[in-house]
Amino acid sequence: MLYVGLEPASDHVAACLRVGPGAEIVARRKMMVANDVPVRIVTSYFCADLFGDTRLAEPEFMQPSFQSALTALGYTFGHAEENLTARPPTPFERETLELEPSEWIVQVLRASYSTEGTPIHVLETICAANRHIFPIGQVSGCDEF
What we know:
It is a single chain. The chain is α+β, with helices and mostly antiparallel strands and 145 residues long. It has a single domain, classed as 3-Layer(aba) Sandwich (Chorismate lyase), CATH 3.40.1410.10. The protein has 4 helices and 6 strands, in the order E-H-E-E-H-H-E-H-E-E. The two termini are 20 Å apart. 22% of the residues are buried. It comes from Nonomuraea guangzhouensis.
């Protein structure tokens, strides 16, 4: 884990969570490596007013999943919207992913909403554009991903 705590919402995350830019939100940021090479920064965002005082704001990993934690809090997944962007990295992304000056990143932004339309989870994945794989697996015994 790189970070768990409150931070100001960027414009694109604020739009997904339906809060104002700069509003405090819960962020859970981690880095994924492959053979000791950083390949992905993954950040989950949650509205602080809904989830700031829950286990989603604590540094422990969610077992078995975020979806199960959200369900336990009374939210049922309804739908998600995903946006893909290729762009130059920010200084933080360049340093964290150990990118060369000419390398770009791919940003995947997935906003998940409850059956009532409440924004419940925004997942931002930042990948080095030339070194990423998206493995997807099922949580043991669960029909969710």
